[in-house]
Amino acid sequence: MKEEHFTYEVRGPIALIGFDRAEKRNAISDGVIDQLEAVVRRASAESKVGVIYGHGRHFSAGLDLVEFARKSPTESLFGSQRWHAVFDQIQRGRIPFVAALHGAVIGGGLELAASTHLRVADETAFFALPEGQRGIFVGGGGSVRIARMMTAARMTDLMLTGRTLDVVEAERFSLVNYVVPPGKALDKACELADKIAKNAPLSNYAITNALPRIQDLSQENGLFVESLLSSYTQGSPEAIERLEMFVNKQSERVAPPSIRSGNKETVSR
Ligand code: 1HE
């Protein structure tokens, strides 16, 4: 019987995707990538937001080095492209994804987390890119996504020296958006996912798909695309309804931080 590497649960508008290969520290094999693709496709079809987390003591130890050691360079090339395709379905798919991180978030595990749209980490989380020590290079999109998040200069440091970041450093490096006490990452990720699910789906889509693309454009083209999207989203039935509610004083006001942050231990960027 095929080993199942993920748990899948629907909780209201949220799909919970649990990485379930704890005996191998959630290392990412070819089989894991195939199953991840299937659960991401399912979540994107039936839920408004996806949350990805890890069972066991770690989020993920990254690439399955035992399987990788036996691959030819050609198999590695196609394997890397497969990771790109699946992680792209997360980053540029229909719904936003939130990652709940704890323990090791290493190599390909960090590449997976970097393909999600929000990262919540508990204080046990640690981050590393030990590809230099392993004699390999990143292959799951890290040179693009992680370098953009933390800067290429910082990523060079991590990859050359094998430096491990704790959660405070990871937040300073823009790798994580929220830091919470041990064991609380999944709860916080679900709380955020519930909020995201209440947004208009077209706004969520523009935020997750247009914003990163605009970063790749010139200022002139970026501003032009922004204006087009601004008018396009404004004409959607959801925007019309929500704006009408505001006009009629039926919508919630934006709360100032002192009222909003009842949760003192949570640090938001
Ligand atoms: C693995 C892997 C793995 C653990 N591939 N099997 N990633 C790394 O270089 C990280 C390597 N792993 C570790 O440093 C540690 O395992 C951890 C810090 C994550 C966790 O330590 P610990 O003490 O909890 O676990 P362990 O005893 O080291 O490992 C338990 C089992 O998981 C053991 O197998 P067992 O059969 O002997 O029980 C380990 O062999 C197995 N295991 N990590 C395969 N990574 C697309 S390019 C991306 C490039 C990268 O990701 S490079 C980074 C690779």
Outline the structure in words.
The protein is an alpha/beta fold and 269 residues long. 50% of the residues lie in helices and 15% in strands. The chain folds into two domains: 6-197, 2-enoyl-CoA Hydratase, Chain A, domain 1; 201-267, Lyase 2-enoyl-coa Hydratase, Chain  A, domain 2. It has helices at 30-46, 65-68, 73-91, 108-114, 131-134, 142-150, 152-161, 167-172, 185-197, 201-215, 219-234, 237-247, 257-260; strands at 6-11, 14-19, 49-54, 97-101, 104-106, 118-122, 126-128, 164-165, 178-180, 267-268. The protein starts with 5 loop residues before the first strand and ends with a strand. 38% of the residues are buried. 3-methylmercaptopropionate-CoA (MMPA-CoA) is lined by residues 24-25, 27, 58, 61-66, 80, 83, 104, 106-108, 130-131, 134, 136, 138-140.
Distance between the ends: 44 Å
Catalogue the unreliable spans: 262-269
Give a count of the beta strands, DSSP E runs of length 2 or more: 10
CATH superfamily of the largest domain: 2-enoyl-CoA Hydratase, Chain A, domain 1
Helices and strands, with pairings:
Blueprint: E1 6-11, E2 14-19, H1 30-46, E3 49-54, H2 65-68, H3 73-91, E4 97-101, E5 104-106, H4 108-114, E6 118-122, E7 126-128, H5 131-134, H6 142-150, H7 152-161, E8 164-165, H8 167-172, E9 178-180, H9 185-197, H10 201-215, H11 219-234, H12 237-247, H13 257-260, E10 267-268
Parallel strand pairs: 2-3, 3-4, 4-6, 5-7, 6-9
Antiparallel strand pairs: 1-2, 7-8, 9-10
List key phrases describing it.
269 residues; alpha/beta; 2-enoyl-CoA Hydratase, Chain A, domain 1; Lyase 2-enoyl-coa Hydratase, Chain  A, domain 2; 15% strand; disordered C terminus; binds 3-methylmercaptopropionate-CoA (MMPA-CoA)
